[in-house]
Amino acid sequence: LEEAVELVAKAGILIIIGTSLQVYPAAGLMNFANHSIPVYYIDPKPAPIYNLANDIKIIAATGSEGMKTVRKDLEKLK
């Protein structure tokens, strides 16, 4: 878990795919993300997310469909 926290803290973008966000400690990893990075949450039935300092884009879709949206967003940043 410590390694996962370090990776999330260093990430330039965080993409969470296919989870109910109910299983801890993994569900709390997003709280270690740098507050300036974008966070994407992709799930057909996304759980509500409270108190996250980051801007989060919730995409109610399957992983493969949601990643198409993420890709389009990231291409705009180039």
Overview in brief:
The protein is α/β, with parallel strands linked by helices and 78 residues long. The chain contains two helices and three strands; from the N terminus they run αβββα.
Structure report:
The chain contains 2 helices and 3 strands. The chain has helices spanning 2-10, 63-76, and strands at residues 14-17, 39-42, 56-59. The chain is globular. The N and C termini lie far apart (32 Å).
Helix content: 25-40%
Write out the strand line-up for the largest beta sheet, numbering strands in chain order: 1-2-3
Strand residue content: 15-25%
Distance between the termini: 32 Å
Q: What's the tally of helices?
A: 2
Main beta sheet: strand number and arrangement? 3 strands, parallel
Order of helices and strands: HEEEH
Question: What is the structural class?
Answer: alpha/beta
Counted beta strands: 3
Average predicted local confidence, pLDDT: 91
Q: Which value, in Å, is the CA radius of gyration?
A: 12 Å
Spans with pLDDT under 50 lasting ≥5 residues?
A: none
**How would the global form be characterised?**
globular
Q: Which helices and strands, and how do they pair?
A:
Blueprint (H helix, E strand, L loop, with lengths): L1 H9 L3 E4 L21 E4 L13 E4 L3 H14 L2
Parallel strand pairs: 1-2, 2-3
Question: Which short descriptors sum up this protein?
Answer:
78 residues; alpha/beta; three-stranded parallel beta sheet; 2 helices; 3 strands
